[in-house]
Amino acid sequence: MSENSQEIFGQGGCFAFHPVYSGDCKYTTGIFKFMKNKPTGTNPESIWEESSSIDDCIQIAIWRIIPFCEVRNIFVVIYDQNSKSVKTYTDTDDLIKDLWKSFSNIPFDDGEKDLVLGQDWFIFEKGTERKDIWKWFDSHYSKGAVSLLYPEACTKI
User: Fold this and answer.
1) Is the full-model pTM beyond 0.85?
2) Where are the domains of the chain?
3) Which terminus of the chain has a lower count of CB atoms within 10 Å, N or C?
């Protein structure tokens, strides 16, 4: 896997942002090279990163996978500090849906034209307009941002 050179902000020191998925624990993200099934043994193509929340682990996994966005089949596991699997993903859309859930807890401020991020989050700097974040989700989620914004309406169609 090649590295993505842009940094992610994660939840950082934003006290207004409460993680959607995690408690007080250290978590480890295992990102395996686009495998449909659980790997056996050690995979030299895997990435392991530690974080303080499941939300940050989701961000890390997405950011490591984005350079390969044409590949939808992945294998990502998030482990707690006792090596117990707490979340498993086999599709990039599932990761992006959970990132969207985290996004719902982010503080926004009034901007000139639109609401803007009140704090650095994921790859977006404080002051980024909400519609620019929606565009990112629209380009990376296979069903588009509309289905994330209005899930009930999209499931009835």
Assistant:
1) no
2) 27-155
3) C
